[in-house]
Amino acid sequence: MLLIAPVTAITMDGERRVIVDAGIAVDGTRIAAVGKATELAARYPLAHRLDGKGMVALPGLIDAHAHGDQSLLRGTTDNLHWVPFLRDWIDPWLGQRSTDDLLAAYRLSLLEMVRAGTTTFLSPNVDPTDDLEALSGVIAQSGLRAVLCRWIEPGGDVDGAVEAVTECDGAAGGLVQAWFGLMVPRQEGDRYDPPFYREVADAARYMGVGVAYHFCSEIEDAAYYQDTFGMRPAVWAEEHGTLGPNVVLINGCWFNDEEIEIVAATGTSVVYSPVATAKMATGVTPVGALLTAGVNVALGTDGGANNNSHDMIAEMKAGCLLQNVTQRRAGALTAEQALELATIGGARAIGRSHDLGSLEVGKRADVVLVDLDRAHSSPVVDPVSNLVYAANGSNVHTVLVNGRVVLRDGVATTVDEEAILSTARAAAARITGRITPRHQPRWPII
């Protein structure tokens, strides 16, 4: 038995209790009790103690849109809209990288995630050429949870994708979930194959897994569907069977009111990625309208290439500010709502609300301790406000996943940080010049 105490526990339970002088008892991989520290100390006198004095405890953050393979491109794709971003950088990267490059990128992303309090992430486009066994091994070593969405497009091998998802689901000792990453048409020239979309959706439902895909992220998406199919994107998705409780739509920046009702009625989740969509000037997810309609909304960072960061704490603040300025109303998205998106919203999106997303008895012991006693994040009058508006990933002190300490005092315990950074630098040097066009800094570096 492990007792984490004393902490201020932001439980994210049904009552949204914030418990001061709290303790969290962990029995193996699950939470055994949450309550006052003195009561739990008396109940579990022989428990090993993890000192949380001065810390805020929260459930592990869930990054529901994280391209873990793009960290080696950080700083090379600034000031690009989505078409040149994909055409000139991402597609060449996918076509020219080696397995070593892929794993170096993921190791770097995972290290960044855990240091900022992310315990679970969804990677929506795992390429068919990627070595899923090797990738699962990297995830197992990191100790984080992953939802790996195996990419499948019209004309692709559906049977092969089904086999890959079947073999990968539950890998890394259960840390890996395997889903389908679906390609749907988004622009002129994309292949259109109605039976294919239903085949993948039916396979996912039969297998009990999910489907994730980028959808209505850019205004060009909405115009393309209207011009090509004579209908709005969500209407198209409903007609082609690609919505439902096991489906995650990424971004959804340009849904109208009718589409929001469709998304709500089908139980489909939407991921809000504020920094990446703002940086690429593609649009803003209508979070307020989605939440009002009853849609489950999660939060995601997107990737190291177009966000330049996997800091979910920073993402929460950006998410609030972007909603406020676009709605021209302070509090359009509150700190409390942002934290819901990053925890229980993410857990619902990946079908894990029964065991992730809050600090409650019986749930998995994914716990993050955040030190707010810093110059930039104190004094603490309201811990939720300070967490979202004043803190960032550097405030994260300790992280547990499945009851295992994977970060202690800001240092990863399961991997060699310097080796990861060194390998990433070498991999980035290898790909320099192979990805076209080669990035040129605007200011001279001499």
Detailed description of the structure:
The chain has 15 helices and 18 strands. By secondary structure, it is α/β, with parallel strands linked by helices. Strand 11, helix 9 (257-265) and strand 12 (269-272) form a beta-alpha-beta unit. The protein starts with a strand and ends in a 15-residue tail after the last helix. The mean pLDDT is 96.
Task: State the oligomer.
Answer: single chain
- Count the E strands: 18
Amount of beta strand: 15-25%
The helix-and-strand class reads alpha/beta
Number of helices: 15
Give the distance, in angstroms, between the N- and C-terminal Cα atoms. Answer: 56 Å
What is the radius of gyration? 21 Å
Shape: globular
Low-confidence segments:
none
What is the residue-mean pLDDT, rounded to a whole number? 96
List key phrases describing it.
alpha/beta; 446 residues; 8-stranded mixed β-sheet; 8-stranded parallel β-sheet
Summarize the structure.
With about 450 residues, this protein is α/β, with parallel strands linked by helices. Helix content is about 40%, strand content about 25%.
Any chance you could write out the topology, listing elements then pairs?
Blueprint: E1 2-10, E2 18-27, E3 30-36, H1 37-43, E4 48-59, E5 61-63, E6 66-67, H2 82-96, H3 99-115, E7 118-126, H4 132-142, E8 145-152, H5 158-168, E9 176-182, H6 194-207, E10 211-215, H7 219-229, H8 233-239, E11 247-251, H9 257-265, E12 269-272, H10 274-279, H11 287-293, E13 297-299, E14 302-303, H12 312-327, H13 335-349, E15 367-371, H14 383-390, E16 396-401, E17 404-408, E18 411-412, H15 417-431
Parallel strand pairs: 1-4, 5-7, 6-14, 7-8, 8-9, 9-10, 10-11, 11-12, 12-13
Antiparallel strand pairs: 1-2, 2-3, 4-15, 15-16, 16-17, 17-18
Helix pairs in contact: 3-4, 3-15, 8-9, 12-13, 12-14, 13-14
